[in-house]
Amino acid sequence: MPLRSADDMTGTQVARLGLSNAAAATIDRLLLIVSTIDDDRRPPAGLARDALDALRTMNKVVARAVMTEMMRGTADEDLADVFDMDPFTFVRQYGHLNAGHLADDPRAMWEQLRPTCPAAIHDTCPDDPAAAAHHLDEWMHRHLDPREAAPPPPHPVSAGL
Q1: Does residue 55 lie in a domain region?
Q2: What digits encode the pLDDT tens for the residues 91-124?
Q3: What range does the domain containing 70 cover?
């Protein structure tokens, strides 16, 4: 059954949704670089600017992945290992992303994530995170290769939250 509102979610699920949103925004930015058709209209350093914009968005993916893992209870030691650093250094660099206090408050979690929404199209970051999940369902359907997922799941993002 698809999500109807934020009340159907936990703060942890909303954090995961914020991760999905940032990942989709990164892919959208990278798609701009794949095409070569408009290269003659690109300004000087345009490709580098687009790549840097995608990198900035990817940094949000990493931050939101760390936040989501923390909310899911992943130990600092395990996350530090992924970053190839000691736990103290990890907490010093990424401890500010711990939003565990919002695990039971989906609306507050979304209010924290929404102002930094990296999506180029603002309606993918609506007031209600459930609506954002449905936008991402549609985004996934546009990007799924029918040769790889037959038939595609009806709600590839919202059904898993």
Answers
A1: yes
A2: 999 999 999 999 999 999 999 999 998 887 767 7
A3: 6-36+43-144
